[in-house]
Design brief:
TIM Barrel; alpha/beta; about 280 residues; globular; two-stranded antiparallel ribbon; about 40% helix; 10 strands
Length: about 280
């Protein structure tokens, strides 16, 4: 089944999250972000992923208001930054994000990075926000298995999502299996590997067979693996191109060919080494 841009994944708490969305990492605050978000919503995107550290939450909120689409029809994610981790500071950071966005709730709130010695307390604050109904779902980002194991040993509510760097060169099969076992959805940031996979010969060959671009084939690979994707772009044509992946399907053989490209290669920071 080819599916549609409105397809959702049901998180383990019953909340439905669009499988396809727009990421706004590095999108300049102001009209650049406003225009990108409005274009995405016009094309049919219904999920927007931002973060406090991106400095563009206010622009995301403005775009959603100007779009004319009901707030409840758009799934909005933000994240607590490393400097704000800890119990009381997380509660304040959340309220600050809500104020910048201009919303009275968030759909998903994530711990941005696993700050050693802090992320468990941060999680307890997020559980409080969840229990108070200020956020519909809570999750994590950039967590390895051992981070998740520690969190699960302390948590009242397990994360619904783990957002990690994931693309054909970094397939993350072990952590995907762990998350599946614990009913934690996997979401890919940098799903096309910061553009560094676009010249890969195998992907180009598959793309030519389907009359699609390399980026579209990679995004389709994610979708067929049941991974949530949030490709980022501020270019209108690219925003539209990225979404045009629901009119074709990769064969099992093509999926396996792309799977075989894994080389455990990161283009972003490693959570084990990242100076948080």
């Amino acid at each position: 089944m080819t599916g549609s841009i409105r397809d959702t994944i049901t998180l383990h708490n019953g909340v439905k999250m669009p499988q396809f969305g727009l990421g706004v990492y590095l999108a300049e605050a102001g009209q650049t972000t406003v225009n990108a978000v409005k274009k995405a919503l016009e094309v049919g995107y219904r999920s927007i992923d931002t973060a406090a550290i991106y400095k563009n939450e206010q622009s995301v909120g403005q775009a959603i208001k100007e779009s004319g689409i009901k707030r409840e029809d758009i799934f909005v994610t933000s994240k607590v930054w490393n400097d704000d981790q800890g119990y009381e500071s997380t509660l304040k950071a959340f309220e600050d994000s809500l104020e910048r966005l201009g919303f009275d709730y968030l759909d998903l709130y994530l711990i941005h990075w696993p700050v050693k010695g802090k992320y468990v307390e941060t999680w307890k604050a997020m559980e409080k926000l969840y229990e108070e109904g200020k956020v519909r779902a809570i999750g994590v980002s950039n967590f390895h298995i051992h981070h998740l194991e520690e969190l699960l040993s302390e948590a009242k509510h397990k994360p619904v999502v783990n957002q990690i760097e994931l693309h054909p060169f970094l397939a993350q099969e072990e952590i995907r299996a762990f998350c599946k076992k614990h009913e934690i959805a996997v979401e890919a940031w940098s799903p096309i590997g910061r553009g560094k996979l676009l010249d890969e010969p195998t992907i180009h060959h598959i793309a030519s067979k389907h009359n699609k671009t390399a980026a579209q084939v990679i995004l389709r690979w994610h979708i067929q693996h049941n991974i949530i994707v949030i490709p980022k772009s501020v270019t209108p044509s690219r925003i539209e191109e990225n979404a045009n992946i629901f009119d074709f399907e990769l064969s099992q053989e093509e999926m396996q060919q792309i799977d075989a490209l894994n080389r455990n290669e990161r283009f972003g920071s490693n959570p084990e080494k990242y100076d948080v």
